[in-house]
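Re-run with default settings, no changes from the original entry. Doing this only to confirm the output is reproducible before filing.
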Amino acid sequence: MKVAAIGLVLAVAGSSPQVVARVHTGASPGGAAAAFGAVWVANDGAGTLVRIDTRTNRVTRRVRLRPGLFSVAGGFGAIWAVNYKRDSLTRVDPASGRTRTVRVGASPFDVLCAFGRVWVTSWEAGVLSEIEPHSLRIVRRIRIGPRPTGLRATGGGLWVGFGRSATSIARVDARTRAIRRVQMDERAPSWFVAGTRALWIQAADNRLIRVDPRTRRVTARMSFGRTLAQGSLAPDGTIWIPDKEQSLVYRIDPARARVVDSFAAGPGAFLALSSHGSMWVTSYAGDDVWRFGTNGR
């Protein structure tokens, strides 16, 4: 399996993915999620959550919330969006667009649906909130540590990143809620790459770290780009890492832990999302989402 994966990665090197659509969503698109047969994008500046029809590449629903929308997730029959300016989490019905909102800790950062709950990190509060998805009741507020950031669920645990001067991540046991710190020896290990088996974590602006979630040991370290953002595993087996300062996407060979190539994306390229056989990259310094074909198409 490893040999086949490496061969596939090498096959795509030298043929940059092509832009097949640019979808205007609203000012400062940041967070995005694939859910309920569509791509959903949170527009920070516009304060809207939009639904993109992946067949037509058109916005087919626009839910008006408030500026400050950041991360978004799908699960438990709804779309969930955090607003760092309103200290809130909003539940959006994907069919009707109806909303319900609950206040969480100060400056919510990321949201994730896993283990029967909705989880929200709050940057200023240093809290991980556990929320019952149907009642929107906050079941538990876990004092997780200063400036919690990205979230990832794998291997029976919830993984939490941290910003600023932090040099470790945390694992929260899904059954007992016991917390264990895992040292990274890199500043600000914040965002987790989506879709990978190993934990790939963006840190210190231009660092990417690979961690074995079973042994909790660092197995690779990479340095490239300037200001890396939220990455994702692509259908071709590469990892896509946006660089919001350079408005680029880097493709990474995960088996060899090396950069395959890089190519232009939208202004302030922020988040890469795999959905419907394509890769979608939000343009945080712009107002659109770029859809890329894979394997050079």
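The first strand starts at residue 19 and ends at 24. The chain is about 5% helix and 55% strand.
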